[in-house]
Specification:
By secondary structure, the chain is mainly beta. The chain has a single domain (13-201), classed as Electron Transport, Fmn-binding Protein, Chain A (Pnp Oxidase, Chain A, Roll), CATH 2.30.110. It is 11% helix and 35% strand. The protein has helices at 16-19, 71-79, 92-97, 108-111, and strands at residues 23-24, 26-31, 37-42, 45-49, 54-59, 81-85, 116-118, 125-127, 132-143, 150-161, 166-167, 170-171, 179-181, 187-189. A seven-stranded antiparallel β-sheet has the order 3-2-6-9-10-5-4, with helices on one face. Strands 1-13-14 form a three-stranded antiparallel β-sheet, with no helix packed on it. A hairpin with a 2-residue loop joins β11 and β12 (170-171). It is globular and about 50 Å long. The termini are far apart. The mean pLDDT is 95. Residues 18-173 form the Flavin reductase like domain. One of its GO terms (molecular function) is FMN binding. It comes from Thalassovita autumnalis. InterPro entries: Flavin_Rdtase-like_dom (IPR002563), Split_barrel_FMN-bd (IPR012349).
Length: 202
């Protein structure tokens, strides 16, 4: 099968999300200029640079009570700050609950029944149960082709790790089992690892 996206795929559901998988989930927390905390998951998320450490996520929709945007992007435009909370398997239901399209004045931490703490390097809340949190300062917002498609880039200014996930000096993801986004309504969980030695490391 071959199709051009502009012509349609003719399938019951768009296969694009199912092709680019698995994807890490950026559970992005922000605070509005009025001090309202927001939390929402984004499956177009990844690390993009080592030095300085940088991440990005993309928002691909809009809410009626925002100006062609979502609460997350609107808050970042206003404050220049956000945090990326890592989603463990244990937090899957809370993450899903926080994906609801709620009024801008709603605190998704409370809606999802999550405890929150205060970040150290930025003025933002984070999910205290998250195994890791990346505190970020906005570097740029890029408007992408298409309606309401926005990419947000940030530099990591602080890193929080749960102590029980540190094993012999390494961050052991099997201790918390990260959640990954697949296509359609599907998710996966990372439990099994294997290592490969790069040719240049031999």
């Amino acid at each position: 099968m071959f199709y051009r996206p502009q012509d349609g795929h003719g399938l019951p559901h768009n296969p694009f999300n199912a092709i680019v998988t698995p994807r890490p989930i950026g559970w992005i927390s922000t605070r509005s200029a009025d001090g309202i905390d927001n939390l929402a998951p984004y499956s177009f998320f990844n690390a993009v640079a080592y030095e300085p450490p940088q991440v990005m996520f993309a928002s691909t929709g809009a809410k009626a009570d925002q100006d062609n945007s979502k609460d997350t992007v609107a808050n970042i435009r206003a404050t220049g700050l956000f945090a990326c909370n890592v989603v463990s398997y244990a937090l899957r239901d809370a993450m899903n609950a926080s994906s609801a399209a709620l009024p801008a004045a709603t605190d998704e931490f409370a809606h999802a029944g999550l405890d929150k703490g205060e970040c150290d390097s930025i003025n933002c809340a984070y999910v205290t149960a998250a195994p890791a949190v990346l505190e970020c300062k906005l570097t740029q917002i890029v408007q992408l082709p298409g309606a309401s498609n926005t990419a947000v880039f940030g530099e990591v200014t602080g890193v929080r790790l749960q102590d029980d996930c540190l094993v012999d000096g390494t961050f052991d993801i099997t201790r918390y089992q990260p959640l990954a986004r697949l296509g359609y309504r599907d998710y996966s969980v990372v439990r099994d690892l294997f290592a490969l030695t790069r040719p240049d490391d031999r």
